[in-house]
Specification:
308 residues; YojJ-like (1; 7 strands
Length: 308
């Protein structure tokens, strides 16, 4: 009886150790999945892969006993992690906000694919911007690229319009004689959602040549990843486009059309990782369930054999 109890305790400790290791690995896989879904861009994934390579190299050098190399790689991992915190401010902000709100399920959901815009909608926007530029009428347009922007990211949400995109309507709104000309125009898919939206100003040190509209475009694209902004300067009539806090200027109307068609094309630079990751996640869960079932069967068989 004493021998059976000792063997049972040893088996229990082994089973518990295996279970805790499985939980530990599962949590790491889940965290990696959340980060990849939140980031989801090809160039960003390369940076993450580079950090993972550094971490694996540091772990291997530590196991082998290469102390100096391990020390250097550990410092490089820490420095890279700090640098990533600055590079991916928007992604980390979204992660921490959802974590703070308790939206755990949304952490496993993609931010959404690029919302494709038809050539007609892009043509209407570009034609309106071209006319505004020629007349030196200041304008600021926000184009959502995936999921809707949270209104809390705006300083003032603006006035609801909910109308079809047309160059005539865009030009009319930005005339200085209208009440809605001051602020930004929010475009979602093929509709103008709101006008006179007040945006947060970028805190970066910008050129003195840049006015409030340009700094507002940089500010909202720094704060929100899923949008880009088109700016028409009132002083010079030049056209600019801001994305991820970076201002691309000056642009011609043909270049703007080319950029918008490229950006909103399904064949853009964004890598849709969530469907593949979701499939991998499901296979991992299925494999874990199968492994747990096999382990339970093994333990039951072991105890039954020992009792005989």
């Amino acid at each position: 009886m004493g021998s059976f109890l000792r063997q049972w305790l040893e088996t229990e400790n082994w089973a518990y150790s295996l279970l805790f290791h499985a939980i530990d690995i599962g949590l790491v896989v889940g965290l990696a999945y959340m980060l990849l879904v939140i980031i989801g861009e090809k160039r960003t994934l390369w940076v993450v892969r580079g950090l993972i390579v550094l971490m694996v190299a540091a772990a291997l050098s530590r196991e082998i006993g290469l102390e100096l190399l391990s020390f250097v790689l550990d410092k490089m991992v820490v420095g890279s992690a700090v640098a990533m915190a600055f590079i991916f401010q928007a992604e980390f902000r979204r992660f921490l906000e959802q974590l703070g709100r308790g939206d755990f399920l949304q952490l496993f959901q993609s931010s959404g694919e690029i919302a494709p815009k038809s050539d007609d909608v892009i043509d209407e926007i570009v034609d309106a911007v071209k006319e505004l530029s020629q007349n030196r009428t200041g304008a600021l347009l926000i184009l959502e690229t995936s999921r809707p922007i949270d209104e809390r990211d705006f300083s003032v949400p603006g006035v609801r319009i909910n109308a079809e995109v047309s160059k005539e309507l865009i030009q009319t709104i930005f005339q200085t004689t209208t009440l809605l000309h001051d602020g930004a125009l929010l475009i979602r898919d093929s509709r103008i959602v709101a006008a006179s939206v007040i945006l947060p100003i970028s805190e970066r040190n910008a050129s003195r040549q840049l006015g409030t509209r340009h700094r507002a475009a940089m500010g909202i694209t720094e704060r929100v990843e899923q949008c880009l902004c088109i700016v028409v300067s009132e002083e010079t009539g030049s056209i600019s486009m801001a994305e991820r806090g970076v201002l691309n200027r000056p642009l011609t109307s043909s270049k703007l059309r080319e950029l918008l068609r490229s950006r909103f094309s399904r064949m853009g630079d964004r890598e849709v990782v969530s469907p593949q990751l979701r499939s991998l996640w499901q296979r991992a869960i299925s494999g874990s369930v199968s492994s747990a079932s096999y382990m339970t069967h093994f333990l039951v068989s072991f105890f039954q054999k020992d009792k005989r």
